[in-house]
Amino acid sequence: MKDLLNRLLFNLLTFSLSRARDNQGYKELFYKLKKIVPSLKDQYSSFTIEGRYLETKVYTQHAFQISLLIDTLKDLESNQMPRVLVDIGDSSGTHILYLKELVGNLDAISVNLEKEAIERIRKRGIKAIRCRAEDINNLPEFSNLKVDIFSSLEMLEHLENPIGFLKDMAKKAECEKFVITVPLVLNKSRIGLHQIRNWGSNQAFNPETTHLFELCPDDWDLLFKFTGWKITKRVKYTQYPKKSLFTFFKYIWRRLDFDGFYGVILEKDDTYSRKYEQK
Predict the structure, then answer these.
(1) What pTM value is reported for the model?
(2) Which residues neighbour 64 within 8 Å (Cβ) at sequence distance 6 or greater?
(3) Using CA atoms, how far apart are residues 205 and 64, in angstroms rounded to an integer?
(4) CA atoms within 13 A on the CB side of 46
(5) How confident is the model at residue 140 (pLDDT cuts 50, 70, 90)?
(6) Which of 12, 5, 27, 20 is nearest to 261 (CA)?
(7) CA–CA distance, 127 with 121 (Å, rounded to integer)
(8) Per-residue pLDDT at 27 exceeds 90
(9) Is pLDDT of 266 > 90?
(10) Quick one: 125 exposed, middle or buried, by C-beta within 10 A (0-12, 13-18, 19+)?
């Protein structure tokens, strides 16, 4: 009976994801991404993406992210070619493979802390640098590199000090745009650390699977402004259809996962950060 109920639940969630994908305009890109990268089994070190539910969930999430990056590339004012993109927290190079196929003329670099992730990315023929996200501006590789776009896709919520990271990027990173996506928590901001909350403290867990800060969009927006950024575009993707009879799925997603994902395109703007004086 338990197995039957689980299958029913995941079938319902897959249905919700499919309707959300179609309802929010990601269907065409979803299938393009599946054609470019037919399998996501090597996406992460800690778990494997397989089965209809997880594949639908992650490919649709990727479609949301890639759509935001394509829009950003189109909006760039620079005539520099090829475009230079640095993906901070990239776990496998998948996003870069998508973009090289869809956009072309792209010089991309991946940054990740984990040795296994770096090895996966390099096997795909993509430049990869192993370091902490917080240390990226201290690397000689970036000292004279003009970057069009920095991206951080589902990475910011894993950092112990996202404010320090965002401030450092605003002050030191040479870039036109910064694209960030994070989990969408619509009810209220919260501390993640679900492993401690749900398991207690006896099981090991790692940065790849550990969320520290799960903030609502309004609170993320305040942090972006405070740390030296201006929001030029914001997009909310929900894992349930918007304005539909099936919107009630949001209550299931909030119980089991997230409403969806929140993405922003940022440009440097110290309007607020320079007004904050530390004594």
Answers:
(1) 0.92
(2) 24, 26, 181, 235, 237, 260, 261, 263
(3) 28
(4) 9
(5) confident
(6) 20
(7) 7
(8) yes
(9) yes
(10) exposed
CA distances for 268 relative to 71, 223, 224, 228, 274, angstroms: 18, 13, 10, 6, 12
| Residue found by looking up tokens 């030191």 in the block | 172
Burial of 218 per CB tally in 10 Å (0-12, 13-18, 19+): exposed
Residue 270 contacts residue 228 (beta carbons within 8 Å) = yes
Alpha carbon dihedral 203, 206, 208, 211, in 10-degree steps, equals 70
Identity of residue 2: K
Instruction: Evaluate whether 235 touches 261 at the Cβ level (below 8 Å).
Output: no
Nearest to residue 45, comparing CAs of 111, 97, 91, 113? 91
Contact 133, 158 (CB under 8 A): no
Distance CA 205, CA 187 (A): 26
The whole-angstrom separation of Cα 91 and Cα 49 is 13
Cα dihedral sign for 155, 70, 37, 51? positive
- Strand, coil or helix: 15: helix
